[in-house]
Amino acid sequence: MTVLFCFHFNEKNNGGVKSLLDMLEVFSEKGVRIIAAFPFKDGSAIEYLREQGVKVLYVPYTRWDYKLNASTKSKFKSFTWGRIKQTKTYIEALKFKKILREEKIDIVYTNTNTIFFGAILNAIYKIPHFWHVREFGDLDHGNGYILGFATFEKFVERYTTKMIVISMALKNYYESKGIPSEKMITIYDDVSNEYLLNFNCEKFRSDSLNILIAGILQEGKGQIDVLKAFNELCKAGVKANLYIAGKGDESYTQKLGKYVADNQLNDKVHFLGFVEDMNTLRKKMYIAVVASKSEAFGRVTIEAMLGGLVVVATDAGANSELIDNGKTGYLYPSGDYHKLYECIYKIQENRENMYETAVRAQKYAVQYTNGNCGIRIYQEMTKEI
């Protein structure tokens, strides 16, 4: 079986890309011939795949997402170019006929809802198409579809064999938007076992509390709420440091920096930017906060659990599917930074319980390292051959 995997981004640090790369290990073990398509000519994900012996194709298909909070001028530009982008992707699909034939591609897979090249290939050539949707779009990333949700819905219903979603929260969301339930299949993401770290109770006995929030810096990820809760924690006399790993929206990053400066937190809040080696960082952390307004799955949640951290997350999206509140982590009302402060304050008062929670969480999270996602998707694909 030969499968064409259409990537939306070219860097390994992207959550959707990391999840797909983890999944491809299973496909490789199954003897599947993997071909990767990127709308970029270079990048760390491209280099990695080439090192693994995977054939990589440059195909300049386009994205169809835009920022909902963009200026009117920016939105007008996005919508003006929308039809042109669709035409460009359609032309690339027409040119792709020769490659489909020469490479004897059996299945097309699309990663994330931000690209639609795979759906166009299905529309033209009737080749089975699996669409792996990893995001709400509007609720988590603040994105909309240039051609409208109705177009996405049509592409799923007409030009997609199966739409794979990564949580029940995501399935329920798309079902409420009109996507037929029978068109979707829920499969939780795989996470590499490289994030599984050894730790012991001594880790949690330090006087200072190291708190981590990791992920792209954008409004929907809730970093500002974490800063506000951390400020309350410091005012309460808790000796702590907050580490913010990730980069993203420039204006939002400036907003975070201003809050830190205005509240004299510069010596306690550390902006790390993109961190290549998260394992080394997590070994020094005690608590991981996942403050997203709506988390589609929670890859960082599972990574933190595997790394021996106590996870505190919003009760929005898929977090409640991954965390047994009070046993494998803690949930707080989304957007309520005071409740987040209260939760962290209470947790840090009992360091022995922190260790026990981290142990339970790690035991739970190990199930996501067994390649189940890749195996199930592989099985679904073989039904179409």
Q: Can you lay out the helices and strands and say which pair or pack?
A:
Blueprint: E1 2-6, H1 15-29, E2 33-38, H2 44-51, E3 55-58, E4 65-67, H3 72-95, H4 97-103, E5 107-111, H5 117-125, E6 129-133, H6 138-141, E7 143-145, H7 149-159, E8 162-165, H8 168-176, E9 184-186, E10 209-214, H9 223-235, E11 240-245, H10 250-262, E12 269-273, H11 278-282, E13 287-290, H12 299-306, E14 310-314, H13 319-322, E15 330-332, H14 337-348, H15 351-365, H16 372-382
Helix pairs in contact: 1-16, 3-5, 5-7, 9-10, 9-14, 12-15
Question: In words, what does this structure look like?
Answer:
It is a single chain. The chain is α/β, with parallel strands linked by helices and 385 residues long. It folds into 2 domains: 2-189 and 370-382, Glycogen Phosphorylase B (Rossmann fold, 3-Layer(aba) Sandwich); 193-368, Glycogen Phosphorylase B (Rossmann fold). Helix content is 44%, strand content 17%. The protein contains 16 helices and 15 strands. A 7-stranded parallel beta sheet has the order 3-2-1-5-6-8-9, sandwiched between helices. Helix 1 (15-29) crosses helix 16. It is globular and about 65 Å long. The termini are close together. 45% of the residues are buried. The mean pLDDT is 93.
